[in-house]
Every structure is written in structure tokens, then in C-alpha cells.
Amino acid sequence: MVDGMTGSETLFSLASGFALAGKVRKITPLGDGLINDTWLVATDRDKGVLQRINGAVFPRPAWNMANLRRVIAHLEDGKERDIRLPKPIPTRGGADWLEERGGFWRMLEYIEGITLKGVDSRETARSLGWSLGRLHALLADLDPAGFHDTLPGFHVTSAYLSEFDRALSDWRGLACAELSAAVSRIEAHRGRAEVLERADLPRRIVHGDPKLDNVIFDVSRRRPLAWVDLDTLKPGSVLYDIGDCVRAACGKGGRLDMELAAALLSGWHEAARRFLTAVEIDLVPHAVWLLPFELGLRFLTDFLSGNRYFRVDDPEENLRRAQDQLALARDVDSRFGRLSRIWREISATPGK
Ligand code: GN1
Ligand code: MG
Question: What is the position in ligand 1's atom list of the atom closest to the CA of 58?
């Protein structure tokens, strides 16, 4: 979007401040992120991704960039390079970002490929799961102590519940049937929301936002090449990643596509099995339920608080997003036994 703050002249001058080869020719909005603003920058010889980092969510860009640089250096150290992450392109003065016009600006490498709008085959689901597991496996030997927490409280469901309680008690808008239904869905399941927090889960470096549109596929649509959107690359549990990946790739219209979910989980397991612990394996089905529940809770809280976190086109959008996620969580809950059986079978499969 090119608004008053980011008119095209401003964008051209900002983009020219980064060390891309050639002269900036074209700048177009990229992706559907709800937090940062993103543009594709084309010069006569090169391409790059320009982003304005949302400073209200990520107030310390130095931390985001340090985490990213550390992971990239680690991947380059290793022999296996089958998953790429976009590298930062420094400013002409050698900095990792610019602070200008009330925002933090950075440029990242553009990785050629396509993003998928939906997963339509088991093969694609499996390769998506495999690439997430592969990323986890490549990060598994990093010490989380060397990383910054770029977004404290991210995926702490109990904290989201407290925020929701406050927002609901301060809510002065008109009650409506949709809101009451969403609130009762949260109330009905809040007792289960803290199971992952109470478990003794290993802390690892995770992606944090492994949605389908954060994976670049090759043009044949089969092979995932790279993971992007790395501001939440930080210490956490892989369970939130796998739950979020299944949610985003296999949840449609408030229903989980069980076949796609099984394929995704088996791809992930194949790549991640060598480091997963028993407690992690045990709680995978719970994570598949929790992530839509948690995102529904976050959307609903944002709706009640005046839509200050997630970008919206109209004031009810976060309510509709919450309904959709909460319907998905309910669907997973209603078929939890089947999901658990499928996962038990997958996780009992010996490695090849
Ligand atoms: C946000 O901006 P985007 O779309 O990459 C959010 C994720 C949510 C997602 C829902 C830092 O990610 O947690 O799953 O929206 N990221 C942050 O669409 O809160
Ligand atoms: Mg994101």
C-alpha cells in the first residue's frame, strides 16, 4: 500500500538507500502480512524485498536482524543447504536497517519462486511438512541462549487469555450473536489452553509463523525452497510451529482436512524425528487444536480492543477471522480421537 507516509517517491528514495545493484525501477506491494508492510523492489539488474517493520510489535529491529544473521550463518556452516532463508541486504552505509519516517526499514534478498494460495494435494502437504521439519532439524543444534526474544509473550496462551478477559470486561460496544458465540467457544475450552505451557517442552529455535504463504515453492509447485517472514525466528517450542502450519495449510472454512493434515504431519515427522522427544511427540495433536484456538482468541481480543494489532479493512474483520479460527478449533476438537490415532501411526513409523 502506498499511503501518505509511504508515497512512491519516499519508497524509491528509501529503497535506493540499500545496496542493491542497479537503479530502482519499480516498487510493488508484496504478500498479505498483517503486521509489517512489504514491497518488491526491482532495479534494472536486481530484486529485493523492502519492509517497514511494525515498531509497535517489534520495537528492537537490532534483535530481529541479529537472530536472522545468526541462523543464516549457521545454515551456511552446514553442508546441507536445501532450505534457504532470505539474507539481509545492508544499506549503502553497511547497516542492517534504516530508521526513517517513523519506521524501521530493511531490505531482504528476493528468492525467486511462487507462494501457494492453498494446498490441493497430499504431495504438497507432505513436502510442506517435510520442509518445516527440515528447518527444525537444521536449527536443532543451536543454543537458544544466544538468541533474543523479539516478541515476548508470543504463544503464551495464558497471557492472551488474561488480555482477552480485560478486553471483554472493558468492551462498551453492542452485543451481537456472533460475539456471544465466539466468547462461549473460548470459555468452553479455556481449561485446555495451558497444556503446552505446563509441559516440560525443550526450547529450540523455531520459525514462529510457518504459514503456507511464508514458504517459497519452486515453479513446479512441488519443492519448497525457502522460508520467509522471519521476525519471530526465536526460542520457543516446535509444537507451536507444527500446529500453526497444519492450521494454516489444512484448515479451510472452519474444517480440518484430515487427509492433508496426515500428509503434512508425516512429512514433518520424517524430517524431525531424529530430535523429537517423547513429550513433544505426545502433544502434537493438542498443538493442532491449540493454534487455531489461540489465534481465534488473539483476533477476538483485538476486535474487542479496537483492532490495534492486526491490520483490518473493516472493523468487523477481526471478529470474522476469530469465528473462522474458533470453528476450526472446534472441528479439531470434535475429531480429536481420529487425529490422535493418525498421529500415533505416523509417529510409530520407523525411519527410512
Ligand atoms: C500475523 O503478519 P503475518 O500475517 O505474517 C501474526 C501471526 C498470525 C498471523 C495470522 C507477529 O502474521 O502470529 O498467525 O498474522 N504475526 C505476529 O494471519 O503476530
Ligand atoms: Mg508473519
Answer: 11
Please give the grid coordinates belonging to residue 316. Answer: 468487523
Nearest to 328 by CA among 243, 241, 212: 243
Q: Which atom of ligand 1 is nearest to the CA of 232?
A: 11
- Find the 221 Cα to ligand 2 centroid distance in Å: 21
| 349 Cα to the center of ligand 1, angstroms | 33
Q: Which of 51, 211, 212, 244 to mutate to test the pocket of ligand 1 (most atoms within 8 A of CB)?
A: 211
Query: Residue 33: CB within 6 Å of ligand 1?
Result: yes
Q: Burial-class residue 297 by CB neighbours within 10 Å (0-12, 13-18, 19+).
A: buried
Reduced to 3 states (helix: H, G, I; strand: E, B; else coil), residue 85 is coil
Is there an atom of ligand 1 within 6 Å of 285 CB? no
CATH superfamily of the 122-346 domain: Aminoglycoside phosphotransferase (APH), C-terminal lobe (3.90.1200.10)
Q: Is residue 2 pLDDT above 60, yes or no?
A: no
* DSSP, res 217: E
Which residue's CA lies nearest to atom 4 of ligand 1?
Answer: 33
Ligand 1 site, residue 156, Cβ cutoff 6 A: no
Domain ranges within the chain, ordered by starting residue: 8-109, 122-346
CATH number given to 8-109: 3.30.200.20
Report CA(177)–ligand 2 centroid distance (Å): 31
In tens, the pLDDT along 291-328 reads 999 999 999 999 999 999 999 999 999 999 999 999 99
Closest CA to 301 of 198, 208, 180, 167: 167
How far apart are alpha carbons 151 and 25 in whole angstroms?
35
Q: Is the Cβ atom of 229 under 6 angstroms away from ligand 1?
A: yes
pLDDT on residue 3: 47
pLDDT band at 103 (very low <50, low <70, confident <90, very high): confident
Residue 9 banded pLDDT, cuts 50, 70, 90 = confident
d(CA 191, CA 302): 21
φ and ψ at 237, to 5 degrees? -110, 140
